């Protein structure tokens, strides 16, 4: 990965990192960022936190400073997902989406926080983010509602299987 | 009756079924019929599931959209998170043929094909655009006169506005008009545009933000907080207690999901709307009910 602490003090762009990010859905949007900073003024995580700055994150993406973004306890998880940045961006970069693509890279590396892992695990188990239970169904009954209908997990599992490399026969 | 494929999501049917009940009670009274979608899964979650793998997220969302297409109906959502996932997926698959082709290769395994024929509509916009605010006002039998409702839009109902297409994110009106229609007075507090912070992993950051938000709610002396998202609701229910303790502030404005208010104003009893399960109970509504019963 690229580093800005090389002996000659020159930032070398890590293209492998950028190629990996570009493969994610909407992962290539940062390429259109011209660092105007419109995203920063309305960012609640910049205002209330100390480390989070969407313009800086986009700059690190452009340089490919992967190790600064993809470590344990990455600052990316401080994003509130409010989309104010996407609203303000004159280039349609959608910094929040780029951040989510980076989080996909974190997940690929097994570096997502426990909260995220729990939600994903629950979905894989039952197709919802809240598990069915007799307590849930009793509560629903109080309001005259039927038990939660089961999710057809065979269908879900089938579409979650990755695509074959060369595409699938239709 | 206008018919819509009902997409209840996870949080509302499993954690807050009284919100589902409120919707099922109130919507037919203003001319909206909900058609259940058999086999629907989580939308899936636009925060953590999407952070795990966007391609999986898109495939599951497309499958849910297919269920509505098979019924030939637009989707009605009741949760801002579901609205975000499904609207964004609709938008991505419309713009990007290659993505649509990849998604359809996955869907072909279960005999489905995504076409893009069902639009995604949040219930607030369906009410505003399909039956109109007047129909809401006409359905009210006990108006919430005199109650000040601090409006909390939350983020995903409005943004990104190009995709959500619900209202102007810098000066939205839809919740104000809905709250007026049930006879209450909507109030815009100083920090109305702030996020609830539920999707942020830094708790100190979230708590400071909520402290600012709830402080301006207190300044306007609102009787209730009015919102449209079950995730924000959870943050204002138990979250409010935590923030108040941490900052030594008296935060206690009861949060309400708008359709609890509508059903109540249409005459559904207080006891059937889950208010008793909330950490901060809307006593002002109990008083309205007591007065109505006495007269």
What's the number of helices of chain A? Answer: 10
Main sheet: strands, sense, barrel of chain A: none
Low-confidence stretches of chain B: none
- Would you state the CATH class of the largest domain in chain A? Mainly Alpha
* Total domain units of chain A: 2
Morphology of chain A:
globular
Description:
- The complex is a heterodimer of chains A (170) and B (295).
- With 170 residues, chain A is mainly alpha-helical.
- Chain A folds into 2 domains: 15-108, Orthogonal Bundle (Fumarate Reductase Iron-sulfur Protein, Chain B, domain 2), CATH 1.10.1060.10; 114-160, no CATH class.
- Chain A is 47% helix and 0% strand.
- Chain A is built from 10 helices and no strands.
- Chain B is an alpha/beta fold and 295 residues long.
- Chain B has 2 domains: 2-123, Glutathione S-transferase Yfyf (Class Pi), Chain A, domain 2; 142-267 and 279-294, Rossmann fold (3-Layer(aba) Sandwich).
- In chain B, 50% of the residues lie in helices and 11% in strands.
- Chain B contains 14 helices and 8 strands.
- Chain B has helices at 11-14, 17-26, 48-52, 54-71, 80-95, 97-108, 123-131, 133-138, 161-164, 174-181, 203-219, 230-247, 258-265, 283-294; strands spanning 2-7, 32-36, 75-77, 120-122, 148-151, 185-187, 224-227, 255-257.
- In chain B, β7, α12 and β8 (255-257) form a beta-alpha-beta unit.
- In chain B, α11 (203-219) crosses α12 (230-247).
- The longest helix of chain B is centred in the first third of the chain and has 18 residues, at 54-71.
- Chain B is globular.
- In chain B, 58% of the residues are buried.
- The mean pLDDT of chain B is 97.
- Classes of the chains: A mainly alpha (170), B alpha/beta (295).
């Amino acid at each position: 990965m690229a580093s800005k602490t090389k002996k000659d003090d020159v930032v070398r762009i890590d293209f492998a990192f950028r190629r990996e990010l570009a493969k994610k859905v909407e992962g290539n949007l940062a390429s259109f960022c011209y660092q105007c900073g419109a995203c920063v003024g309305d960012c609640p995580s910049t205002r209330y936190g100390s480390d989070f700055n969407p313009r800086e994150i986009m700059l690190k993406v452009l340089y490919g400073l992967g190790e600064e973004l993809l470590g344990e306890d990455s600052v990316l998880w401080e994003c509130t997902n409010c989309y104010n940045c996407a609203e303000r961006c004159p280039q349609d970069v959608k910094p929040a989406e780029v951040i989510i693509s980076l989080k996909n890279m974190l997940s690929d590396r097994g570096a997502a926080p426990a909260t995220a892992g729990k939600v994903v695990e629950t979905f894989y188990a039952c197709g919802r983010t809240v598990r069915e239970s007799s307590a849930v169904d009793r509560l629903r009954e109080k309001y005259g509602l039927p038990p939660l209908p089961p999710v057809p997990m065979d269908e879900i599992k089938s579409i979650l299987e990755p695509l074959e490399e060369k595409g699938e026969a239709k | 009756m206008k018919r819509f494929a009902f997409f209840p999501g996870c949080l509302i049917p499993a954690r807050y079924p009284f919100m589902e009940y409120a919707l099922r009670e109130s919507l037919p009274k203003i001319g909206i019929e909900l058609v259940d979608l058999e086999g629907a899964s989580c939308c899936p979650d636009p925060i953590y599931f999407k952070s795990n793998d966007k391609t999986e997220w898109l495939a599951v969302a497309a499958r849910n959209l297919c269920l509505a297409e098979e019924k030939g109906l637009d989707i009605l959502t009741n949760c801002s998170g579901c609205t975000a996932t499904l609207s964004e997926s609709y938008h991505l698959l419309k713009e990007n043929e290659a993505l649509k082709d990849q998604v359809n290769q996955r869907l072909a395994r279960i005999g489905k094909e995504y076409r893009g024929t069902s639009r995604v509509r949040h219930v607030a916009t369906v009410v505003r655009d399909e039956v109109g605010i007047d129909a809401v006002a006409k359905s009210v039998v006990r108006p919430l006169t005199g109650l000040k409702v601090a409006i909390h839009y939350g983020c995903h109902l409005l943004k990104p506005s190009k995709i959500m297409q619900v209202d102007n994110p810098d000066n939205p009106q839809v919740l104000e008009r809905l709250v007026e229609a049930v006879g209450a007075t909507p109030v815009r507090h100083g920090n109305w545009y702030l996020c609830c912070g539920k999707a942020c992993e830094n708790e100190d950051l979230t708590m400071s933000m909520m402290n600012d938000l709830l402080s301006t709610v207190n300044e306007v002396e609102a009787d209730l907080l009015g919102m449209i998202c079950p995730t924000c609701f959870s943050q204002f229910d138990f979250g409010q207690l935590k923030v108040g303790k941490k900052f030594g502030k008296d935060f206690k404005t009861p949060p309400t999901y708008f359709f609890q208010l509508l059903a109540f104003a249409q005459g559904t009893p207080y006891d059937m709307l889950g208010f008793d399960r909330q950490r901060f109970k809307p006593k002002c509504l109990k008083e309205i009910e007591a007065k109505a019963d006495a007269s």
